[in-house]
Amino acid sequence: MCKLLYSQNGMRLTSIAIHGRPAATSHSVQSGFARGVRMGPVAAMHKARQLLEGYSSLPKVLVLDLDYTVWPYWCEMYSPSDRPPGLYPEASAIIDACRERKVIIAAASRTPTPDVARAFMHKLGLDVKFDNIQLIPAANGYDSCSAQKDTCHLPNIREATGWGYASMLFFDDEMGNVAKVARLGVCSVQVPTSIGLCLKTFSEGLDKFAAQQQAQ
Fold first, then answer.
1. Is residue 1 domain-resident?
2. Of the residues 56, 59, 82, 199, which has the fewest C-beta atoms closer than 10 A?
3. CA-closest candidate to residue 89, choices 182, 201, 8
């Protein structure tokens, strides 16, 4: 399959073949930002707070994929010295509002370039907002035999935080990851790559988490 390559201003430059990685989207980073815009940062923060206040039972741990979940690109398309294009418009407000409610924030990424992901998290101010960061690449690119999130990332997060799977809410753009992690008992939600982690999907995740808690 082909992966699109973008410059830092979001313009498409070329495409390269990436084997074993699901296609995320056919549009540019720039259009991804445009489709994801719902409200300004202040309004998004207010709405995120309102959403959280509406639930008596919140997840203890919010687990987030990075590429095409928190930010609208694959970080392996860049180098650690590059300036990251940014985040999905509403992702930061969701993370900040959860932190205010003492929800633990964890990252679970299979990126083949953890050095780039780590550098981008630092430049975007995310490294100080995430309590646990699992950047574990697969052994041979995006193979299906190693570094699976249900066997590596989530068990590490459970051990580090002390919270069980039933207390976690997980967001990822790849359905394969969502299905595998859900089998652990984690409330798992797929995010649309066009808008990433947004208030609408976050609300759906909170609804699903509340329903699972009531069913236990």
1. no
2. 56
3. 201
